Amino acid sequence: MTSNQPSSAPFGNEEIQLGITHRGKQIQLTFPEHAILADLSEKIATDLSIPPQNQKLFISSKLGLQRPPFKDPNVPLTDIATKKITLMGSTAAEVSALGASITAASAARRPSPVKPLTPSRSRDVKRIQEEAMYTFHTLRPLPYLRNPEKSLKFLERLRDDAGIKAAMRTHKFSVPLLTEMDPAMHTTHESRTLGLNRNKGEVIELRLRTDAYDGYRDYKTIRKTLCHELAHNVHGPHDRNFWDLCKQIEREVERDDWRSGGRSVGDQEYYEPEEVYDHGGWSGGEFVLGGGGPTQTVQGGASGSLSAGNLSRREILARAAEERLKKKKQIEKSNKDGVNDPAK
C-alpha cells in the first residue's frame, strides 16, 4: 500500500479537514465538526463517485478495516482526523464497464465451429482446430489500472503457455473471457482472493498485480491459480473430485511446459516473486490465500519451507523472517567455529 501522511488535525470550531489516500493520491475532504463515519462514506460517494458498496476504508487505529454499512456509523470524524486513512474501491463507471465485458463474453460462450482444414504433412490439423476451440477467446486487462498493456502481455503468456494449451485441449476447456482482478476489490486483513471462476468457466479472473499495484506477481504462482480455476469448470464444491482434478491439471501443465514457464517476457522480468505461495482455501469458486484448505507454505525458512496453517499474512512473513535470521546465525557460528578450530 502506498504510504501517505496522516490526516490533518481538526481546526477551528466549525470544520474538519480529513485527508485520505486513494490509488496513491492524497485527497482532502472538508466536514462539519459534528460529522460522523457515515458522512465520510456519503461524501466519498458524492465527490469521488465510488458507491458505498464498493468502498473499503483502512484506518490506522483500532477501527482497522471498515466498509459500509458500518458496524458503528456514528463514530465521530474528530476521533480519526489524525489517523492515516486509505480508501480502496472502484467507481460505478469502472464496475459497469467490467460488467459489460463479462456480459459480452457470456454471449460468446459457444465458440463458432472451426472450419475443416486441408490436411498438410507439415501441420497437425486436428491440433490446430482444437487449439482454436479450446482456449481463452478474449483477453482483457483492467483499462483503469496503470500499464494495462503489461497485464495484456501477462494474459497472453498464460493463454499461449504450452502446458496450459495442452491441458485446455485434454479437458476440452473453452473460456470466453480471461481477465485480471482488481486487488482492491478482493482484499481484507485476513485473506486475499487470488482467482475467481464465474458460472463454471464463463469468466476467469486472476490477481496479476501485487497488493500495492507496484508490480506483478510470480508467473508460476498465477499459473497454478489458473489450474485451480480451470478445475472449477467441472467441479463446484471443493470435494475430493475437485482436488483430484486440480492436482491432475497442475501435473499436466508442468509435464507439457516444454518452454519452462517463469522466464522473462520481452527480454526483461516484469513480475516480482512472492514469499507466500498459493496454497490457501477455496470459497465459492474463489481461490483465497489465508483461508482453510491445504497447508500454506512460506519460502525462506531454515529448512526451505514452513507450515503456516491458518496464520495471517503478516504472521507468516514474520515467522519466515525469524527462520531466515536463525539460519544466518547458524551459518555465521559455523564459519566462526571453523576459523577458530586449530585443526582446520
UniProtKB/TrEMBL annotation:
GO terms for molecular function: proteasome binding. Residues 312-344 have a biased composition (Basic and acidic residues). It comes from the Eukaryota. Residues 292-344 are annotated as: Disordered. Residues 295-311 have a biased composition (Low complexity). Coiled coil: none annotated. Residues 127-326 form the WLM domain. This is Zinc metallo protein-like proteinase.
